[in-house]
Amino acid sequence: MRLQLSPEMEAFRDEMRTFFTTQVPQEIRDKIAAHRHLTREQYVQAQQVLNAAGLAVPHWPVEWGGKDWTPLQRHIWREEMQLASVPEPLAFNASMIGPVIAAFGNQEQKERFLAKTADLEIWWCQGFSEPDAGSDLASLRTTAVRDGADWVVNGQKTWTTLGQYADWIFCLVRTDPTAEKKQRGISMLVFPMDTPGVTLRPIELIDGGHEVNEVFFEDVRVPAENLIGEENRGWDYAKFLLGNERVGIARVGATKKLISQAKEHARDVVVGGRPLSEDPRLTARIAELENELLALELTALRVVANSADGKPHPASSVLKLRGSELQQAATELLVDIAGPLSVASFADGGSQVPDWARVAAPQYLNYRKVSIYGGSNEVQRTIIAGTILGL
Amino acid sequence: MRLQLSPEMEAFRDEMRTFFTTQVPQEIRDKIAAHRHLTREQYVQAQQVLNAAGLAVPHWPVEWGGKDWTPLQRHIWREEMQLASVPEPLAFNASMIGPVIAAFGNQEQKERFLAKTADLEIWWCQGFSEPDAGSDLASLRTTAVRDGADWVVNGQKTWTTLGQYADWIFCLVRTDPTAEKKQRGISMLVFPMDTPGVTLRPIELIDGGHEVNEVFFEDVRVPAENLIGEENRGWDYAKFLLGNERVGIARVGATKKLISQAKEHARDVVVGGRPLSEDPRLTARIAELENELLALELTALRVVANSADGKPHPASSVLKLRGSELQQAATELLVDIAGPLSVASFADGGSQVPDWARVAAPQYLNYRKVSIYGGSNEVQRTIIAGTILGL
Amino acid sequence: MDFTYDSEQNDLRDAVAGLLGRAYSDSEQRRRVTAADPGFDEKTWARLAEMGVLGLPFAEEDGGMGAGPIEVAVVAEEIGRVLAPEPFVEAVVLAGGLVAAVGTAAQRAAVLGPLAEGSSVLAAALAEPATRWSASAAGVTATQDGGTWRLSGVKEPVPNGARADVLVVSAVTDGGTALFLVQGDAEGLTRTGYRTHDGGRAANVTLDGTPAELLGDGTADRTADVERAQALARIAYSAEAVGAMDTAITTTAEYLKTRKQFGVTLNRFQALTFRAADMYVSLELARSTALWASMVADAGGDAVAAAVRARLQTSRAGRHVGKEAIQLHGGIGVTAEYSIGHYTSRLTAIDHLLGDGDWAADRLAATVDSYPTVDPLGAPYTG
Amino acid sequence: MDFTYDSEQNDLRDAVAGLLGRAYSDSEQRRRVTAADPGFDEKTWARLAEMGVLGLPFAEEDGGMGAGPIEVAVVAEEIGRVLAPEPFVEAVVLAGGLVAAVGTAAQRAAVLGPLAEGSSVLAAALAEPATRWSASAAGVTATQDGGTWRLSGVKEPVPNGARADVLVVSAVTDGGTALFLVQGDAEGLTRTGYRTHDGGRAANVTLDGTPAELLGDGTADRTADVERAQALARIAYSAEAVGAMDTAITTTAEYLKTRKQFGVTLNRFQALTFRAADMYVSLELARSTALWASMVADAGGDAVAAAVRARLQTSRAGRHVGKEAIQLHGGIGVTAEYSIGHYTSRLTAIDHLLGDGDWAADRLAATVDSYPTVDPLGAPYTG
Questions:
Q1: Which of B245, B264, B288, B378 is catalytic?
Q2: Is A216 helix (H, G, I), strand (E, B) or coil?
Q3: Does the predicted interface ipTM exceed a cut of 0.90?
């Protein structure tokens, strides 16, 4: 057992910290820190800055731009990125379809997609969930029927995040309705969002934002070469994809940032002549939250240290479960510090309510999603009870 | 809607308060207040004082000593009893077998048992639970086979509270193993604990106390006239019995007493020169607990007001569930106020640790039972989800 | 001691439930109404006026119905049940309550009459950017220039402050905190309105030498009057929260019964149904406390103290129910197109407008050592 | 940064686990041992001495093994796993730790040697009836009479105070808090022992002009030394709590898999298995924090600060796991004849002996506004 980072890792952390805080445009980092939405251009700009320095897809195979880092290095990279309010490389590109193509795609697909995927020249979106297939993903109904050199896709996807910005979609489709196990008979297809028959409907979220969409497919013709990997093995690829980079889901750095912002703002809110930052109830609440977060970070480091083989540690579910709870607790803390000012959500010029207090409640409401998406906390408890406790 | 008690009810409350605080021996009430166990004699003495004044079984039929009180009067009677640290009439007599015999027994049984049951001349214990039939009571295995003028009972019961003091036991036994619905085929028998073939084994609880027992039956011969009500209808009587007086289970008065004691003791514990009673964290914790208890008391009053027809209100499960949680929270509060002194559980002479601090931890551990017995909190949630929410 | 409504109260509830149920029978109607200013439906407001609801708590000689806190709670609960955006608590209970408590007979007639008739919307401008749930003013000062009072300073956030025809503004005078009436078209008055996250409206109200009419006689400190009016509004908000929680739980239970996952409906998953049961427990305890607080106010007991207790219970319950309702729904729960998220949003707004749970708990904590036990049927609650 | 034990640490764990596993393979053995004074098994104590465990953290020249806080945590976790009643943390880590930190070379050799050999049991007499988790003495005073120090006052509760051969007593001198060695047979020493709820022993230790030997040179204030020794004991207790929680969860999961109700095993009830999952989450987060705290102490970082964080996490986790373990068992969980309740009892005792979760949270709260974020791999934790 050893607490300290090795000198090499210390140096690596400083290198990351310096890069993120000096090379990524301040304007973009400020917007992230202010919990405002980036424009498409800003996402692309930020990722291309990272990619130019080889920091967009370090976990990819070296020949496609990867870094062959240790899990600890990947952890440090991610945490420093979050602490510096640097937007993370688009997950659909960097963590999802990229690794899948690199692992299961053919050479032609790798050459066609990977470089552009790393550089966000192609913006990918995800076509997995369906209205009647949420946590129960394998019961998806969207079909792809072979017709000559094409697949013909019909059906509907939902919760497609930032689909309005996407160039391409990677999609789970049912290619063998007769397979007796519903996980079998699913394939993964990729195609441009402007293919005839693809229509997109925005879904407004409770905070008024437009993050997710429904995507409808009506006789969408997809060339056969856009099948990723083998026919009817899409479920395996989806599992690979979802299990990939499970460690990042704790989002410790991002929550740390939220708590440090809460401390700052608490100094500016005066109640009965005393800043909220001196209120014993609030400081105790922050202390408990901070300690829970410390425990989570240490658990993430343990998982990292024990997952050198690349396989996701079973305790990853602990990281997702607790990580989402702590993100939500931090956003709730911010709303409570804002207090009555938190109702001024959509104030603009002419309001004296500070920006952080305006976004607090919409963010709190929006963050209810983090315990639902990417495997709900109920799914995580099922995994822990089943695979770890054997219940 | 009207908040105040009517003048009659105000007078009734004063009457109860005066009686309980002046007529029940101080020594007995002090022992209850100190959370120490009463002797058998003290239980009997206290109940006979109540019974002499007609306050032991007010909810029984008038001809057998009942009072024909409104639910609100019964509520006031019980709360005042708890606030005054008066031991409640033995539940097995007053709330369980007594009402069953009064409702379903024959005239001979009523004359034989009811007066002595009210006066605790007969001390009853309960033979319901079995090692393999806890929450799933209906799967009990103890059998009674008819042999001439007798029933012959074989099997085992457990969690028999204060069985070591009991003269008689009321028992659920399986009299028709062939009944296709397991709830059918169960009958209720009563017999003396000194009947040949009855043996009792004490179960030590985690606080070192002896409250419950296992009871074994080996060819115990019970005269046929000791069958209560009809053969194979015992399950209905058990449901009647368990549903009886559901309101009392909130134990609001008892928890109020615990919290008021916690406030007293907090004044005597000095931390860093300041009494704990001035510590903002502790006062906030007490305030939250007290408000939860207020909400529970008001809910109990609502249930009382709406259950004039005598049927248990579905919200009774809320009272049991929350009531047990608040009793446990109050005992935990006392342990935390005792702090390091709470380890001195079995100190005697020669210790400077006050008595309340010695009993705090054993009581806290013992009170884990209140969310388990009398229908566990899981059973209560099942009832709420099913009968109230229709889930 | 009686927790049941009398027939008049039941009739009132049925009438209001009928009206609001028609106006907001599905959440799309509410979305349409809240999408455009003033954030509520003027027609529904007028119908509430016809029904007498907007004058409910005011004396008949002031143009009101002479009803009390219990009737107010009946209406507020129905408002919460369908998330009706009409500002009943804000305009009638709080702003109107201030005028009823402090105004002269002439002022009460002049202001409460039109309010009750629906021809004039009132808003209470008490909050200031730099204070928090305070009953006394600090950032707005009143000075007398000749015969007229003039106010300067900033009030924000002021619920429905931009729409209001008349503002009831608290300001600092030599005597302490006084209350003033400010006309919506007064000179030197700048109002910048905006949407709140729950679909309502609030505003920055900037006063710059704005002429105002002193409410009531003299400039004795009105902090206690404001405190009591806020308390009555807290009690009404508690009832509104109970109505909202009730629907949130019913909606969630209904969803669990119909939504299928893994081939079965969600109510087959015990972990979910148990959590729904815990939501029901929170609701019932909050309901009891909210009902009780309205009875305390009605009986002339210490409404301020009872309101703090109701606030604490409904705040804790509102957070519990609001979070769980979304979680048990899953993804659809965070969309604006489905109703449940709006309930969580409204519960969150109510929680922060007049003092949240921690605020209430701290108030109770300050006095907890001064009495042995709480008796809901005794002093100070029964007066 | 490495969270894995090296081979020596693994060997130590296996050896201790083997010894204690044999001694307490079922909870009846533990019940028998704790039923009679001194509340632990002298034979097992002797075997721990043979194994070197009782001298683990002490310098070799003082008769110890020269190991560190990580090895101490390894042993403490195994103690917790089977609830071994031997007072390793109390006698070795705390009492022995005080002697190792403050004692002269001669005193260290004289006291720690016999402790390590198992021939002398130490107890730390720090607690006083009127103080709470304090590092400084208040109720026991030391006065010099001729060449010898004499102590007067009361220490309670003193873990294993009646059995101890030598007591390490904190007392007030002109210089502040000093530490003294008191022999068990000293004149004017009255010890009244009793059972604690977790099966251990504690005592009232009354000193009346009792001769004592000053620990270390001079009477400079030793509060900081006591604080640090208590911190190391808190870290060890955190490891002991982790071991206890681990067994409690394993036992509970096993019970859910085998206990039948309504015709099926309890692990078919999702509401129960989800709660078991939450217990596991609490355990793993506490484990990480406890491991980290031992690494901080080992690396020469701020052990006092790290101990507070470990205490908070293990206290919250211990209560959660202790309560749920009993509830998920049902009735059998509250009996002394079954193991699980004893785990809850021990977790409760650990929680209150050296500062509970609220105590730790208040300490953290006092400084929370003085830094932006916590870096577990940075100052002050890496020294």
A1: B245
A2: strand
A3: yes
